[in-house]
Write a structure and sequence with these properties.
By secondary structure, the protein is mostly helical. It has a single domain, classed as MFS general substrate transporter like domains (Growth Hormone, Chain: A, Up-down Bundle). About 75% of the residues lie in helices and about 0% in strands. The protein contains 17 helices and 2 strands. It has a two-stranded antiparallel ribbon with strand order 1-2. The longest helix has 30 residues. The radius of gyration is 21 Å and the shape is globular.
Length: about 425
């Protein structure tokens, strides 16, 4: 426990960020492949609504799960640290949940396994989200955030490789489960928490009922935290509108999955190719931003990215041509990678209470999970729109996504505590 913590060296950033990498990998694989699993289990006209409801069920839990786990870790005292035991337990449970999802043969089984995965992920990542705030000095947070976002996007590239290379869904989930354990072990080996004082016996722990209302609302007393939370909510809403339904969009609307003359043959390959474009350009963007965010400023960077991402989604929504979609994905990914680098640093800048860092970062994480409730419900509207006119539901969803990206990034300009 007395070992050094933060080190401004590549091995420290990469080692502590390893679980961030695999978290992105597992969710990216899941959001690309699980809609296709659902489509095999339900009638064609109801697949988006059914998939959306599964996502919404998990998102309801994720609205409080990360903050609750973060709150518990803020008050945990063990010889292994405050956050690390949660990461170890959560990672093990997450791998079990992934194996169950790989065997899902009914919609009910899939929904239960998905909820189990969401809970397990919250156990690990709720406390883990406080890593930057806990250990990285403020003048290095832009760099740390940039590296984490680059790892997130590189993970998506690896996810595409796993999806194309293994083919069978059960094997893909097995591979991700194994990588999940390996990355957790690496992070736990590198991430040494600073010593924390023992709680005096007479102090005890705060009663959980008092946590439920006060601790949840307390960070929102800060205007900056409110703006950052709302901005991230809107950007996440826009992102999930695309990610959740792009596989079925390619299946239903893009009748020729041809990329510069190469026939990709099936929707899964098309979705993976588009994801690869976003991830490759996003990794480049986040790598550039890692050096610039601390000097140029978070707000200006995010504002520019908002305009680029919103503009890129308009032709994506209106023109079902796969080569165009791929090119647009490259532009979108570059801006999204830069945005991610700036957004994590911005969130760490505006946390109101150092003593509740993990809990407050968990509440910030809820700005990413809460939109999944709405995007899940949107699946019903997508199916309804498509019944009125083929593709109309997808077009409306993607144009709404464009508006959400732009609005969210512009709201960041109201933040005062960061530049």
């Amino acid at each position: 426990m007395s070992k050094p913590t933060f080190q401004d060296k590549p091995f420290w950033y990469l080692g502590t960020g390893a679980y961030w990498f695999v978290t992105s990998l597992k969710w990216f694989v899941l959001f690309l492949l699980q809609p296709l699993q659902v489509a095999e289990l339900v009638p064609g006209g109801e697949k988006n609504g059914s998939w959306g409801m599964i996502v919404a069920i998990g998102a309801f839990e994720a609205m409080i799960g990360p903050a609750l786990m973060g709150w518990l870790s803020d008050r945990t005292r063990t010889r292994f640290g405050r956050r690390r035991p949660f990461l170890a337990i959560g990672a093990a449970l997450t791998s079990v949940a992934l194996l169950l999802l790989g065997q899902a043969n009914s919609l009910a089984f899939m929904a239960i396994a998905y909820l189990f995965l969401q809970v397990s992920d919250d156990v690990a990542t709720g406390p883990y989200a406080a890593l930057i705030y806990d250990q990285v000095p403020e003048d290095h947070r832009g760099k740390a955030s940039g590296i984490l976002s680059m790892l997130q996007l590189v993970a998506q590239i690896v996810a595409v490789g796993i999806g194309l290379g293994l083919g069978k869904i059960a094997l893909i989930y097995l591979a991700v489960a194994v990588i999940n354990i390996l990355c957790a072990a690496l992070t736990l080996a590198i991430w040494h928490e600073p010593a924390v004082p023992e709680l005096r016996q007479e102090e005890g722990l705060p009663a959980l009922p008092k946590l439920s209302l006060k601790s949840w609302t307390e960070p929102f007393r800060s205007p900056d935290f409110r703006w950052v939370w709302l901005a991230r909510f809107l950007v996440a809403f826009g992102f999930y509108l695309v990610l959740l339904y792009v596989s079925n969009y390619l299946r239903d609307r893009v009748h020729s999955l041809t990329l510069f003359g190469l026939d990709l043959k099936e929707p899964k390959n098309g979705a993976l190719a588009a994801a690869l474009a976003i991830s490759l350009s996003g990794a480049i963007g986040s790598g550039i931003a890692a050096k610039l965010v601390d000097t140029v400023g978070r707000k200006k960077t995010i504002g520019i990215c908002g305009w680029v991402m919103a503009a890129a989604l308009v032709p994506f929504a209106l023109i079902p041509n796969f080569t165009l979609i791929f090119c647009v994905a490259l532009v979108f990914g570059l801006a999204y990678g830069v945005y991610l680098s700036a957004s994590y640093a911005l969130a760490a800048d505006v946390l109101p209470n150092p003593d509740d860092a993990a809990k407050d970062m968990g509440i910030w994480q809820a700005s990413v999970s809460t939109p999944q409730v709405l995007t899940g419900i949107v699946g019903l509207l997508v199916d309804a729109g498509n019944r009125l006119s083929p593709g109309q539901g997808y077009t409306g969803a993607f144009l709404l996504s464009s508006a959400a990206f732009l609005t969210g990034c512009l709201l960041v300009q109201k933040v005062q505590a960061s530049r």
